[in-house]
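Protocol step 4 of 6: structure prediction from sequence.
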Amino acid sequence: MARIPIEDNFEDVINKTQRGLHITDEDLAARAEVSAVDLAAVKSGTPLLAVIRRVARHLKLGPHSLEELARKAWYPEQPNFPRGFAMFNTPFEDMTVNSYLIWDGKTKHAAAFDTGADSQAMIDTIESEGLKLRYIFITHTHDDHIADLKKLAASADAEVWANELEPVDFPGAQTFKENAHFHLGDLAIKTLTTWGHSPGMTTFYVTGLSWPLAIVADSIFSCSMGGSPTNFADQYRNNKDKILTLPKDTVIAPGHGPLTTLAQEKAHNPFFAR
């Protein structure tokens, strides 16, 4: 697979944070002691590093990591899963979206997480690996993440599950609560409601693979996190309380952008690195 670009540029991080905190351009420029012209340039993607560092401090972002993002100086080291895990990245309008497949090597039972824009590669993997798809888990119901649910569900006799706070409009779909547990042979799956970007955004924490795995959807991206003009503080709090407290070797599988790890994001994500 070609290298997947980091989802958000530095200006995206600044804009979504400012929007979420309800800080005006005038107020931010005054707090950071920068000119309105320089702030506008930074928000449009011009990497004025001194301005970026000043703005970062007043948005409670890590200045070094935001500058690092602006300089395109870092990319997450990609974790390796020898077996039982596959990632799919499919184009949707002007972006790409991720979906995931895990399976138990003994029973060959599998679970899908979202569908992306096109589930054909996932279906092909299920067939080539001789898997039985038991579950289709929905992280949240934004169109890009469930665009091909009908085809994926039709390809297998699998249960479709979504959070009770954001049920999916699909015949026979079931809902789970916070801290629901599912099993696939030696694999254990636990649900964590990491809402904010959407009402029932769910992180699925998986153990039993080569590494602990958190399928976080749009809760966290490498070097960023999901935005919300109305529930930004809730998204941030849930990320801190429910994802960043997982074991440090946990692999982060986001809804957009490349795989990363919890340890790497604590060091390089402007929202969490200080």
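Step 5 (inspection) to follow. The chain has ten helices and 14 strands.
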